[in-house]
Amino acid sequence: QAAEIENLKQDKLRLTEEKDGLEIQSQKLAEESYYAKELAAAAAVELKNLAEEVTRLSYENAKLAADFTAAKELTASVTRGNDTKRRDQDNGILVEEMQKELVASCQREAALEDTLSQKARRENELLKIIDDAKCHEHDLENELENMWALVSKIKKESSQDDLFEFKSKQNGFHSSKTDTGRILSDMEASDNWKWDGISTLEEAKAAYNFERRRCKELENAMSRLKGEDIRGLEVKVLEELQNFHVEALSRICQEKMAKQVL
């Protein structure tokens, strides 16, 4: 019984250490979320500036188009007149320059639109990172609450184990290996003996040993998980490890509840 209590204490200490690690990880995620929010704010400002630049270029483009139309009309009026070829040549050069400037303006506008679309995609990626960080933080908070609940159950189970030992001593039973044969023989001789819904001490002992074996297997699995170096692993692998960890905690709680019912 003392060894089991010591194991429970060690479990409590290990869970406390894991809780501290989760708190540190939660703090890091909060910092990353804050950094992502700052990036999103900067991207929004840059998008606004780009939108203003596109508006300005569109206005200039419209102005150049109007100038180009006016130049064409001027050229047409000059060709209808009797004035010189020199003016025609000058107007042709002016129209050509305006056409080149108009083409360059269209190219700049297209480049700015492409940059604007890239910034929009980047903003969406940052917002997705923020949402993932919030979800991860929520999962960590739930896991931390489950760990605290498990610690409370372990404390309660420890007090119930002390009560079980006290009742056993009052009835003249002991948990030592030397008295096991005597207790089993006494229980086999009495068909009507019952204690808290358990028909024989052999069934209670079998259930208790089964529960201890299951807890030991889960503790070994958690120890191997805790001893592994998870730095540099992919997100998918980390999620699988997290699911395994949560499943192990759930199974420990189920075994503890089963023991409490016994």
Output mean pLDDT.
Answer: 69
* Helical percentage: over 70%
Going by helix content, strand content and strand pairing, the class is: mainly alpha
Low-confidence segments:
166-199
- Rg, alpha carbons: 39 Å
Tell me the span between the first and last alpha carbons: 16 Å
Main beta sheet: none
What string gives the helices and strands in order? HHHHH
Task: Write up what this structure looks like.
Keywords: Coiled coil. The chain has a domain of 31 residues. It is 87% helix and 0% strand. The chain has five helices and no strands. Helix 4 runs antiparallel to helix 5.
Notable characteristics:
single chain; 262 residues; mainly alpha; 5 helices; 87% helix
Please render the helix and strand layout as text:
Layout: H1 2-80, H2 85-170, H3 180-189, H4 201-227, H5 235-261
In short:
Helices cover 87% and strands 0% of the residues. The protein contains 5 helices and no strands.
